[in-house]
């Protein structure tokens, strides 16, 4: 066993573990959000060559708490739960078969550990909209110190969290602009955190008038995080999140909107000389960033489809120039696309299950907004808009996937969102069930007629 923990992180872990044990069900995730937002992944335990960052330890403790308190017993199973379980667990055999080795098996087990435990804990502790709001409030509070740390980093060029390891002390720079990252492992991931949380903070402002001051501060913090990260991808994700929120007025016509988008892409595909995904290159000419590289990466994944479609692959260095190879793993190039990485890690089956999970989650949001009003006439527009914002946040994640692979604690925010939407789906199904009305007992009488 190898310890890589300093006294501060040990004390923080002990305090947060007590919080997990004694907090109410609704607030049990708050200690985990503290680690996600403020603790880099440099603090970890290494046991038999298996790495356990602090959030993994806290996830295990939260899972044990759920099991010991029986908080898992009345969780209603949903279609999203089935797809998520299949997606998480096929990564073990499929990913390991790409190049059988103990190291690769450990890596795939770690991916499944993060996914399964986070999703399980969220599904057992987040049961209704009030629970979701409570978590958004927690993230809103924590976005304030995240923005403060990144502002300091922007003004000094030094990351205060570097003492915890896992992030550089000197802030990286591109084209003369500092790219701050806070506790996250890359500026793109820090910017993605701000962009994907902004629609939830905006919905908090609308749906919960008592939280408007906090929501305004959190929205400001999210914008600060995006600007400090200097990420054009985060700006694009934020714009798409706002478009998703604006579609609230078209919520009953989303089928027409989707088919219209399909028609636009087909027209672009016929009009463009290059494949349609090279639109990223055109967009980067306007907003900056590596749009051409991201379009080129999609092209490489298609051209090398035969190498990864079955089990995934552990060798992509030949897909591009040597400058794109990861220093820690010379066999792999830097794949800045989460969809492609899903295929690389588990083949076409894992990628297909991931896309199916996203599709089912969007459908669950749509069903809620359409059906809950009929089942619960007291439901307010603000409450429904808050659920719609979950879909807008997921849409922002989907756009972010095109420019970055989630390889740090940000993935837990995605798992929380997917599990929260599944909980909404389960609650919606219960609300829409027909009430069981007790029928009066019908007594039968027989009459005898005397002749």
Poorly predicted regions are 435-451
Gross morphology: globular
Number of DSSP-assigned strands: 7
Number of domains: 1
| Helix/sheet category | mainly alpha
**Main sheet: strand order:** 1-2-3
Termini Cα gap: 98 Å
Q: Using only CA atoms, what is the Rg?
A: 24 Å
The main pleated sheet reads as: 3 strands, antiparallel
Q: Give the mean pLDDT.
A: 89
Number of helices: 16
Beta-strand percentage range: under 5%
Helix content: 55-70%
Helices and strands, in N-to-C order? EHHEEHHHHEEHHHHHHHEEHHH
Structural account:
With 451 residues, this protein is mainly alpha-helical. It has one domain. It contains 16 helices and 7 strands. The strands form 3 sheets. The protein has a 3-stranded antiparallel beta sheet. Helix 6 packs across helix 7. The chain starts with a strand and ends in a 19-residue tail after the last helix.
Secondary structure layout plus pairing:
Blueprint lengths: L1 E3 L2 H16 L7 H9 L5 E4 L2 E4 H16 L9 H19 L4 H24 L3 H28 L16 E2 L2 E2 L8 H21 L4 H18 L2 H15 L7 H18 L7 H9 L3 H13 L1 H4 L16 E2 L2 E5 L4 H38 L5 H20 L9 H23 L19
Antiparallel strand pairs: 1-2, 2-3, 4-5, 6-7
Offer a concise description of the structure.
It is built from 16 helices and 7 strands. The protein has 451 residues and is mostly helical.
Question: Which keywords apply here?
Answer:
globular; three-stranded antiparallel sheet; two-stranded antiparallel sheet; single chain; disordered C terminus; 451 residues; 7 strands; mainly alpha; 16 helices
